[in-house]
Amino acid sequence: MSTSTTASVSTHILDTSVGRPAEGVAVRLSARTGRTADWQELGGSATDADGRCKDLPALPEGTTHVRLDFAVEPYFTDQQADAQQDAPANRDSGAGVFFPEVAITFAVVPGEHYHVPLLLNPFGYSVYRGS
Q1: CB-based contacts of 49, cutoff 8 Å, min separation 6
Q2: Per-residue pLDDT reduced to its tens digit, 68-83
Q3: The domain 8-86+93-127: what is its CATH number?
Q4: Residues 69, 28 contacting (CB under 8 angstroms)
Q5: For residue range 80-91, what is the model confidence (pLDDT) as tens digits?
Q6: What is the DSSP string of the chain?
Q7: 55, exposed or middle or buried, with CB in 10 Å at 0-12, 13-18, 19+?
């Protein structure tokens, strides 16, 4: 068991519609020190060619809740065009991206590491606590 006074967070995104990592997705990290405390935005990063954010900011001491905000609309509208060549066309009639943002909120305890993968496609997503 770790004796660290803070938790740590990492994430990655897999685009399940094409079976590849999602590169270039902006991710913002926020934290709070209790269920009723205000959110403090800590900063952000973007996914690399492997779909990973390797440089998310450290969590402050006393963090109990974390929120990851993924800006997925630009990925699907700008960067996904080439990768989607073999995938079915957008099935919505001009509706654009169905989920323009994905916000994941989870509880943390000091000394633990939390890896939170996002499995993404144009019409749905799933998350879980990874390792």
Answers
A1: 21, 23
A2: 999 999 999 875 455 4
A3: 2.60.40.180
A4: yes
A5: 455 445 555 545
A6: ----SS-EEEEEEEETTTTEE-TT-EEEEEEESSTTSPPEEEEEEE--TTSEE--PPPPPTT--EEEEEEE-HHIIIIIHHHHGGGSPPP-SSS---S-SEEEEEEE--TT-EEEEEEEEETTEEEE----
A7: exposed
